[in-house]
């Protein structure tokens, strides 16, 4: 709960729009307002089990977009809270996955092309031995996240 409040109160990075929402209705309203259109599509990760429970191979990329997107992350709190943000210089994709056990699914992937304004202390830089402004940073979104895209 403390971490949720810290995320909520931390300053946005350059070019980022961020907010918290507490219902699906307000998430839709805020996402459509941020994207500037009522025509939106939703992408979610859909795998039969937790992404961390086994190794997956990417078998295809059925969808990719550089158009505007808003990502909403479920946050731990006594009631539903989603931390949503729109970042600049981001590419999103839906990738097809196959697990070591033969299970299949799809995962939303986000690639951040410009990390210049990220904190040098961000764990991803330490984990991959890179610096802000270096190579693009890509990651899969776990199942409790929702990605909103302009349908245009």
Can you put this structure into words, describing what you see?
The protein is an alpha+beta fold and 152 residues long. Helices cover 17% and strands 40% of the residues. The protein is built from 3 helices and 9 strands. The model has no long low-confidence stretch (mean pLDDT 85).
Percent of residues in beta strands: 35-45%
Number of strands: 9
How would you sum up the global shape? globular
**Largest sheet descriptor:** 5 strands, antiparallel
Q: H/E order of the elements?
A: HEHEEEEEEHEE
Note poorly predicted spans.
none
The neighbouring-strand order within the major sheet is 1-5-4-9-2
Structural class label: alpha+beta
Q: What is the percent of helical residues?
A: 10-25%
Tally of alpha and pi helices: 3
The gyration radius over C-alpha positions equals 16 Å
Distance between the termini: 37 Å
**Average pLDDT figure:** 85
Task: Provide a quick synopsis of the model.
The protein is an alpha+beta fold and 152 residues long.
List the helices and strands and how they pair.
Blueprint: H1 2-9, E1 17-21, H2 24-35, E2 40-43, E3 56-65, E4 69-75, E5 81-86, E6 90-99, E7 104-112, H3 123-128, E8 137-140, E9 145-150
Antiparallel strand pairs: 1-5, 2-9, 3-6, 4-5, 4-9, 6-7, 7-8
Fill in the keyword field for this structure:
152 residues; alpha+beta; 5-stranded antiparallel sheet; 3 helices; globular
